[in-house]
Amino acid sequence: MKKMSYIILLLVSFLSCNTVEPTKFSPEALNDTFTTLEGNQVTLKSILKKHKGKTIVIDIWASWCSDCIKGMPKVKALQKDYTDVVYLFFSLDRGEDRWKRGIKKYGVEGEHYYMQDQKKCDFGDFVNISWIPRYMVINKAGEIVVFNVIEADDDKLIKALRN
């Protein structure tokens, strides 16, 4: 019986580790810079401040990513169903020209930002990008309510947009 208690304790400890997703961006991520379509440098903090009080969907994508392209119809359906939501697209393209061509080619509507070097960027470190597309939802209070989903029709994402 004592051995079983230790196993249960170990299992509970293991399962509870690293399951809490952040609800706020780190100061480093907020100060990370992105490039706008016009070539200006902006911080994540300024992007979020611009949309204070609104629900935000962040879509991390790239034009070379087949899963991202296959997921675009789902994103467009979200945009049609949730018109009061701000859609931010953060690109991991391999060059600004490819990024801009991809936006045009796939008809991606929303605000667009280019991530300089995702391997050395604080935002990338914070969100720990392991797969794209990657969707996040920021609620009207500025809290991250969906941190990591890879489908635009994920139940967690839809529920967050309804609230």
Characterise the protein shown here.
- The chain has one domain (22-162): Glutaredoxin (3-Layer(aba) Sandwich).
- The chain has helices spanning 2-16, 27-30, 44-50, 66-81, 96-106, 122-127, 155-162; strands at residues 33-36, 41-43, 56-61, 86-91, 111-115, 134-138, 144-149.
- It has 163 residues and is α/β, with parallel strands linked by helices.
- The protein has 7 helices and 7 strands.
- It is 41% helix and 21% strand.
- The N and C termini lie far apart (46 Å).
- Residues 2-18 have low confidence and may be disordered.
- It has a 7-stranded mixed β-sheet with strand order 2-1-5-4-3-6-7.
Biggest sheet architecture: 7 strands, mixed
Q: Architecture in CATH?
A: 3-Layer(aba) Sandwich
Please identify the top-level CATH class.
Alpha Beta
Mean pLDDT figure = 88
End-to-end Cα distance: 46 Å
In CATH, the homologous superfamily goes by the name Glutaredoxin
**What is the total number of structural domains?**
1
CATH topology: Glutaredoxin
Helix share, percent: 40-55%
Please tally the β strands and state the result. Answer: 7
The outline comes out as: globular
Which percent band covers the strand fraction? 15-25%
Rg (CA only)? 18 Å
User: Runs with pLDDT <50, length 5+?
Assistant: 2-18
Class from secondary-structure proportions: alpha/beta
Q: What strand order characterises the main sheet?
A: 2-1-5-4-3-6-7
Q: List the total number of helices.
A: 7
The helix-strand sequence is HHEEHEHEHEHEEH
